[in-house]
């Protein structure tokens, strides 16, 4: 894989064959977020969204964890977990901007995003995982909201993503009680799409990512927008959006080539246009 400079070793950015792999790299802290990592994540996600050569994004963590969320030890040592040298209003604005540029970007960017969990995803780290379109968990990985344990209400969109995936009642249970959710339970309640053995995690993630990177990129873009709109939109709005996107896809080279390949009983080759 080609390694791209992110300005820090706390976030590794590699790409190959249309797939971008972003690795949160603070294994000594279970890949807990830092200001340095957050800034790099924001910049890299903006870059991969606009890069036409990247057609799928994989987010993972180095070592045995995915991401522990905020750096609680750092918060404890400073005595202030949210404001620091900012005013409260400035801190709120900063957090809002950063959340939209990271978790919001993973959720909204017009290409598939995959979270590969080698271990625990907790707090805002869980929010990152839930923001992605698909999730793959190692069999020994766990998920936990964790916020209540440190007196936080939750951030990075986790309450929205969790509610959409498992419903309001289960989301409230997981937020209030902060129970650990095993990989098998996550699979059964719809928080993850696949569970595999630890040594197979990245192979499985790349198998799915490569399949998506070689698929109909224009169609995926509009599928994702349709599905996101369906989460909150009125049915007529969704029907109208589907009609617009469906007709547009019918004018693409990918569609014409795929229908011809279907008739000829061949595998289609998608070019993303």
What does this structure look like?
By secondary structure, the chain is an alpha/beta fold. It has 2 domains: 2-213, Alpha-Beta Complex (2-enoyl-CoA Hydratase, Chain A, domain 1), CATH 3.90.226.10; 217-263, Orthogonal Bundle (Lyase 2-enoyl-coa Hydratase, Chain  A, domain 2), CATH 1.10.12. Helix content is 48%, strand content 15%. The strands form 2 sheets. Strands 1-2-3-4-5-7-10 form a 7-stranded mixed sheet, with helices on both faces. Strand 2 and strand 3 (19-24) form a beta hairpin. The longest helix has 16 residues, at 35-50. The protein starts with a strand and ends in a 10-residue tail after the last helix. The relative contact order is 0.11. The mean pLDDT is 92.
């Amino acid at each position: 894989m080609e390694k791209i400079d992110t300005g820090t070793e706390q976030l590794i950015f590699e790409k190959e064959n249309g797939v971008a792999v972003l690795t949160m790299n603070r294994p000594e802290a279970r890949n807990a977020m830092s200001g340095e990592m957050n800034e790099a994540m924001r910049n890299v996600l903006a870059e991969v969204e606009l890069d036409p050569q990247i057609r799928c994004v994989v987010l993972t963590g180095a070592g045995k964890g995915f991401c522990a969320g905020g750096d609680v030890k750092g918060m404890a040592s400073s005595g202030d977990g949210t404001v620091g040298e900012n005013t409260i209003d400035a801190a709120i604005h900063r957090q809002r901007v950063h959340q939209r540029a990271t978790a919001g970007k993973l959720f909204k960017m017009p290409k598939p995003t995959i979270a590969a969990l080698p271990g625990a995803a907790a707090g805002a780290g869980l929010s990152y995982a839930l923001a992605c379109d698909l999730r793959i968990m190692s069999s020994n990985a766990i998920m936990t909201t964790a916020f209540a344990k440190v007196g936080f209400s939750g951030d990075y969109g986790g309450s929205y993503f969790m509610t959409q995936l498992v419903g309001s009642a289960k989301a409230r249970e997981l937020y209030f009680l902060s129970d650990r959710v095993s990989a098998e339970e996550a699979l059964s309640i719809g928080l993850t799409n696949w569970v595999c053995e630890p040594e197979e995690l990245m192979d499985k993630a790349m198998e799915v990512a490569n399949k998506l990177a070689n698929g109909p990129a224009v169609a995926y873009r509009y599928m994702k927008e349709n599905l996101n709109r369906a989460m909150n939109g009125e049915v007529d709005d969704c029907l109208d959006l589907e009609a617009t996107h469906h007709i547009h896809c019918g004018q693409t080279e990918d569609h014409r080539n795929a229908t011809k390949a279907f008739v000829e009983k061949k595998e289609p080759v998608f070019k993303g246009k």
